[in-house]
Predict the structure.
Amino acid sequence: MWSLFKKADFLPEKDCIKGRKEAIKDAPGKDTKHYVLKTSLYPPFPKGSEMISLGMGCFWCSEALYWDQKGIISTHVGYQQGTTPNPTYKEVCTGQTNQNEVTRIVYDPKVIPLSKILKIFFESHNPTQHLGQGNDTGTQYRSGIYYYSKDQKKIIDACLKAYQGALDKKSKGEIKTEVQLAKEFYYAEDYHQQYDAKPGSRQYCGLRPLGISMPAAEAKK
């Protein structure tokens, strides 16, 4: 992944790229199927399914962690939690949108619980790095969990506490993961979707896991 130039922190709204009202022209079409799972990239999704969005650096890397997991219905990458509406990839790479590169995961909670999804999340990147992952630095590469329900938030809080406890035992620092109610999700360009599974991909991985397992976590009822 690359940046046109890097911004060290979030920008005031007035300084962000203005964006556009309509979806970007290179976004996947409404009838586009997941390259691996052959399921839809767009809602409506099956009854009983849930969504969670995760930022953990390059979204090429993070999406590939999940589509092979049993219980995953769909994954797709895009931009979320920022200021600029319907941004392009190049705009996000300037650091002038406040958007984060995320993977949105649609899952069946009866088959794969959110706690397992978050275990993969925490164990597969460095959540203590501020505004970046490895050499990919900037607000667009920040660690983040963006939830869609109060029940999800309880599970997230429990997992955060559990993993921070594991890090404390190894003196590995403080988790910097941003946790917020999910804002509007903007689909990234079609060529980014399931990038690592497609012929000719760079097989890039910028994730920098700490090598520490997440212990079991119990959410408050």
